Amino acid sequence: MSEPREDAVRAVLAAVAARAAAATRLEPAGGEAVLRSVAEATVTLFDAEAASITLHDPVTDRLVIRVAAGTAGEGAVGVSMGSSEGIAGYVFTTGQPLAVSDVAADPRFDRSTAEVTGYVPRSILAVPLVDDEGSIGVLEVLDRRGDAGFDLRDLELAAVFARQATIAIRAGRVERDVAGLLRLAIVNVADGAALDAGAVDAAVAEAVAALDEDDEAALWTLADAVARARHAAPGEIALVVDILDALARRAARPAGRTFRR
After folding, report:
1. Tens digits of pLDDT across the chain (261 residues)
2. Dmax (CA) of the chain
3. What are the residue boundaries of the structural domains of the chain, listed by start?
4. Whole-angstrom Cα distance, residue 178 to residue 159?
């Protein structure tokens, strides 16, 4: 590799690292292992036969079981259903948690999908995986062992586990997109003649703009802006911090609240 090319790669690595660092601070790290641990902990906490995390695939508009725990959940991973089908579909589309003590008597229950997993439950507790960006899936708990059913307290506890899964999923996007960002940025710099900091920043910014998978480019756009601010003077950085702080306070206001002049 020639020295100019090496310099270009080093510059790109530094620029991408700055953006990745900003993005991971905006959203904590997580991944598939975290999802599995959430499902396993859910089974233990509720003394349940199984627990699963189902995620929405926007391309096919289907819910796909990504991870499952418990002896009854072994055959569930990979099974999919329509985004509005079954109890999971109801919870996903409405954003409302649901506890069903007798699924056979509930018209929302999709028995055919349950049979594909190899286990037909008697009762289901389901909570949405939802945050400020919207609903991305469902956490389900199947059949508490013994005669005890699910109650309101169980819904509250399951919602805590669902929140952790949602954070892990959102953060996993950052880790997944870094590789794509790096490839795009290197291609852009390799095709250009200039290797100065401004040219590298422009090339990486163009790559950030191309990361629009699942319509979730906003995080990378913000990370790019924060990373590029490292070149600003101290006074300018303080201004940026003040602006972001004002936006954060505004976002934290209760819905419908407005300022009076």
Report:
1. 455 555 666 666 666 666 666 655 554 444 567 788 888 989 998 999 999 999 888 878 999 998 999 988 878 999 999 999 999 999 999 999 999 999 999 999 999 999 999 999 999 999 999 877 788 899 999 998 877 778 888 888 898 888 888 877 766 655 555 655 665 666 665 565 455 666 666 666 666 666 655 445 566 666 667 666 666 676 777 777 777 677 667 666 654 444 333
2. 72
3. 3-28+173-252, 32-150
4. 30
Of 3.40.440.10, 3.30.450.40, 3.50.50.60, 3.40.50.300, the CATH number of 32-150 is: 3.30.450.40
User: Exposure of 135 by Cβ count < 10 A (0-12 exposed, 13-18 middle, 19+ buried)?
Assistant: middle
DSSP letters for the chain: --HHHHHHHHHHHHHHHHHHHHHHHHS----HHHHHHHHHHHHHHHTEEEEEEEEEETTTTEEEEEEEESGGGTTTTT-EEETTSHHHHHHHHH---EEES-GGG-TT--HHHHHHHT---S-EEEEEEEETTEEEEEEEEEEESSS----HHHHHHHHHHHHHHHHHHHHHHHHHHHHHHHHHHHHHHHT-S--SHHHHHHHHHHHHHH--GGG--HHHHHHHHHHHGGGS-HHHHHHHHHHHHHHHHHHHSPTT-----
Beta bridge partners of 68: 52
